[in-house]
Design goal:
This protein is an all-beta fold. It contains one helix and 27 strands. It has a single domain, classed as YVTN repeat-like/Quinoprotein amine dehydrogenase (Methylamine Dehydrogenase, Chain H).
């Protein structure tokens, strides 16, 4: 398929493929390999359900089908491991298209991928509240849900046993003090919530807890998780969403963390991405911050704040121990909304440096409600496969497939 019209900018990155996703923009991305065939599963932004896209030939992605979801429901998130697909359902936030007075779907759905083009629904686990956001599943017995059950203010961690994927059961949960308003608590800092999903490393879970900070959790007892430490990031950074993602590097005592830009035109405190040293897990410390993206010299804007829409970090590539995904620990792939995809060398924890980027052209057709200020590119999620192909999504584009010159899988 032809690339969208308009000028793209790049450094050490080449675009090789594109799919318009049937003009239903994708959001979060997950990959699955079936024999010699590769499949991309995508949550959606402005439509309910998810896409199935074959990417065996990354230069020519094949749109397979759209699996419909319930109306008036966000189905943003997808995870794949051990031949299972986990998709989310949640109440749409105000300003994103929620229809008052209409029902919505909630919880997490588990699908069997024996037929990768036609996932089979095995079960639907419900929170009993407003649903789940970015869940975490890297295979095996436990799924770590970012849930919002009734009686809580802000999403919490719910640990779900899916040894029998047709009969998922909650076995444990953890929340920050003050969130359980239905249990008589109150007073949690506004914006306190688990947002980007727990990330598990052994018997530790790293929690990006938004205004609540970066939390290190002991999950050796799944029925009774306990906090080891909490590193706050707000102030000086924004409270909502101060810590969006936390990705540990498996062989290094380091975790890459970032915020999420929320308001358009930079009308909020500065966002950031940085590296936390957890060698002393009771006293984690910020080791460095990533340099801010700078527009190319020939770009028609002097700063990304001038480009319109959101400017700031959003999602990182998350390997999650899947052998079909890129597992290197010297590179970080990070989406930056109107600054596109940014690639950082993190081999030196105290001195990360930018080594590549890809800026899609601005869309020419509005496919969703946002960005409100101006129709500009807003790069959302990124996933990198073991072949070296990088997939990125956008609010009003389809999915680009790009390659980084310095990546030799």
């Amino acid at each position: 398929m032809a690339f969208p019209a308009g000028q793209a900018f790049s450094k050490n990155v080449t675009a090789i493929g594109y799919t318009d996703c049937d003009k239903k923009p994708a959001f979060k991305l997950a990959l699955h390999k079936d024999g010699d065939r590769w499949f991309l599963y995508t949550g959606l932004f402005w439509h309910s359900g998810f896409h199935v896209i074959e990417v065996t030939d990354p230069e020519n992605p094949r749109f397979v089908r759209h699996v419909e979801g319930p109306p008036n429901t966000w189905t943003l998130q997808v995870q794949v491991a051990d031949g299972l697909l986990v998709t989310s359902q949640e109440k749409i936030m105000p300003g994103w298209g929620h229809v008052e007075g209409q029902p919505w779907g909630e919880g997490a759905l588990i699908w069997d991928l024996k037929d990768p083009e036609n996932p089979e629904l095995l079960s639907h686990w419900k929170t009993g509240g407003d649903g789940t956001h970015r869940n975490y599943y890297d295979g095996g017995r436990y799924m770590y849900a970012t849930g919002l059950p009734e009686g809580y203010q802000g999403n919490i961690l719910q640990i779900i046993d899916i040894e029998d994927p047709r009969n998922p059961k909650e076995v444990g949960r953890w929340w920050m003090e003050g969130q359980h308003v239905g249990g008589g608590e109150g007073g949690a800092k506004p914006g306190t919530m688990l947002h980007g999903g727990a990330y598990v490393k052994g018997d530790r879970a790293y929690l990006p807890y938004s205004a609540g900070g970066f939390v290190v959790l002991d999950i050796s007892d799944k029925t009774n998780p306990t906090m080891i430490s909490d590193l706050p990031f707000s102030p000086p950074f924004q409270a909502f969403i101060a810590v969006h993602t936390a990705v540990p590097l498996p062989s290094r005592d380091l975790v890459i963390v970032n915020s999420e830009a929320i308001k358009e035109n930079c009308e909020e405190p500065l966002g950031y991405a940085g590296i936390v040293d957890v060698s002393d897990e009771q006293n984690p410390r910020l080791a460095s911050l990533f340099p801010l993206p700078v527009p190319p010299e020939d770009a028609p804007y002097r700063t990304f704040c001038e480009r319109g829409g959101r400017f700031g970090p959003h999602n990182q590539h998350q390997p999650q121990y899947q052998d079909i995904l890129y597992q290197g620990e010297d590179l970080c792939f990070l989406t930056y909304f109107n600054a596109g995809l940014r690639i950082y060398d993190v081999s030196k924890a105290t001195q990360p440096r930018e080594v590549g980027y890809f800026l899609p052209p601005d869309p020419t057709e509005r496919l969703g409600l946002l960005p409100a200020s101006k129709l500009v590119a807003q790069t959302e999620d990124v996933i990198v496969d073991a072949r070296g192909n990088i997939f990125i999504s956008d609010k009003n584009h389809g999915i680009y497939v790009v390659r980084y010159d310095g990546l030799n899988p």
